[in-house]
Amino acid sequence: METILDRTKKLAKEKGLSLSELEEKIGIAKTSIYSWKSNIPKGETIQKTADVLDTSTDYLLGRTDDPTPIDVYFRIDMKNVPEEKREDFKKELTMLRDFAFKRLQEEEKKLDDQEKDN
Length: 118
Fold this sequence. Notes:
By secondary structure, the chain is mostly helical. The chain has helices at 4-14, 19-26, 43-53, 57-60, 70-74, 86-117. It folds into 2 domains: 1-68, 434 Repressor (Amino-terminal Domain) (Orthogonal Bundle), CATH 1.10.260.40; 79-118.
């Protein structure tokens, strides 16, 4: 299972950032990221990391294997969402996405079952 450190290192590499550069961008002490192998950072640090790496906090935390930020799926203009509500808004969008995927899978199974019956 990938840790937050593994996922952070992978995305930083894809973005052409060293971990030192990432630490500087998110405003944490040098070599702090290496402690993430066994310790989960503060929520604010995770959010800043996700923002710099253009991913979601859910991806960094291992809640999803899709590194695409949820607002990319919906092409949401987040400037209309108050700053203090953005994380809640993204969580709601994630739940909507998960619900939609589940419904699509159920419909696909239903169609498969109907084809088998015919």
